Amino acid sequence: MQLHFLIDGKELHISGSIGISLFPNDGEDIWTLLRDSDIAMYHAKKNGRNNCEFFKPEMNRQAKERHSMEVALRNALKRGELLLHYQPIVNINGGKADGFEVLLRWQHPDDGLIYPIKFIRLAEETGMIIPIGEWLMRQSCLQIKAWQNQGYEVPRLAINLSAIQFRQKIIVENIVRILDKTGVKGHYLTLEITESELIENVEETIKTLQQLSELGIEISIDDFGTGYSNLSFLKRYQINTSKIDRSFVRDIPGDPEDTAIIDAILVMAHALGLEVIAEGVENEQQLAYLVLHGCTRFQGFYFSEPLPATEIEKKWKIRGYSLLTLIS
Ligand code: G
Ligand code: G
Ligand code: MN
């Protein structure tokens, strides 16, 4: 039974999460038993709270792995093990890359190249995402500057922003500082955020997006269609582009449900004056379907995988950064 308390006219509930360790199997002294029950309690909280969990030896292994990953990630930034790859966003009108998405990589000393899917969550949970995100933005701006100095016509770089970064009170201030320090204009940047970042603190979010827009920065909705299903944010906020999630692109043109979803997104976005980028385009059949249905901007292995800056430059040097260069 859950009791509730009425405080200031609000109904408050208290629930308990319990971790259990057993003598002598889980430990023979009080400190080991306490540590193990603590680990089990965190599992209980993670599994939805208000329940209990018995300690299992693999919980300890997971906790150790997490801890060593956390220490390694803290060092990664200091030791220069983080690096950036760039994936072209191609526009068939003009046949040029009109943007690059910046994707974070971690060159781990023992485990090789690690993708963000393995460490972004940990970076968010430990707060490391803040210094990593600032490093990434500064690094991206320095890269823009370097390319400009070499005479390239640099398109916008699209940077993924995690919810934790976006909700920072000083996010705009930080961006302005980085732009000033590196001498890069806001209209060289796009920020990619996900739908879920837009549902909380509506007033605050409107203000933040307005300020970013005044700096010339564009906003893309990443993984569009996979998050929050309330579409009213599309008219409420200053948004430029929606990126169709690659899970919808994967099985077209064969899958009638996916084609229906893609058709609907394209019609709606264009009616609202939004640009659309289809993600995860891997073959000609997918591209043909998308083109036929009015999509003009694409990203995916069909054109290019994410590459280091030096590889991107090689493609640039061949024939300007054109569609032909990308496909051949
Ligand atoms: O190329 P890839 O496997 O690296 O990216 C996997 C996921 O990680 C993508 O969903 C992408 O949005 C996210 N990601 C890549 N780089 C960054 C980053 O710099 N910051 C954040 N928050 N997410 C990123
Ligand atoms: O969620 P986000 O859109 O930021 O994801 C970018 C991720 O998609 C990166 O991990 C990138 O490596 C991956 N990616 C880019 N193009 C393709 C593609 O054509 N197919 C697949 N399967 N993944 C892709
Ligand atoms: Mn993205």
Account of the 3D structure:
- With 328 residues, the chain is an alpha/beta fold.
- It has 2 domains: 16-55, no CATH class; 70-327, EAL domain (TIM Barrel), CATH 3.20.20.
- The chain is 44% helix and 21% strand.
- It contains 13 helices and 13 strands.
- The protein has helices at 30-46, 57-78, 120-125, 129-149, 163-166, 171-182, 202-214, 233-236, 246-249, 256-271, 284-292, 309-319, 323-327; strands at 4-7, 10-13, 18-20, 52-54, 82-91, 96-108, 112-114, 156-160, 189-194, 218-224, 241-244, 275-278, 297-298.
- An 8-stranded mixed β-barrel has the order 5-6-8-9-10-11-12-13, surrounded by 4 helices. Strands 1-2 form a two-stranded antiparallel ribbon.
- Strand 1 (4-7) and strand 2 form a beta hairpin.
- Helix 4 runs parallel beside helix 6.
- It is globular and about 70 Å long.
- The mean pLDDT is 90.
- The protein binds guanosine-5'-monophosphate (2 copies) and manganese (II) ion.
- One guanosine-5'-monophosphate (G) binds at residues 103-104, 115-117, 120, 136, 160, 162, 222, 306.
- One guanosine-5'-monophosphate binds next to strand 6.
- Residues 1-57 form the GGDEF domain.
- Pfam families: EAL, GGDEF.
- This is Two-component system, chemotaxis family, CheB/CheR fusion protein.
- GO terms for molecular function: cyclic-guanylate-specific phosphodiesterase activity.
- InterPro entries: Cyclic-di-GMP_PDE-like, EAL_dom, EAL_sf, GGDEF_dom, Nucleotide_cyclase, Rev_trsase/Diguanyl_cyclase.
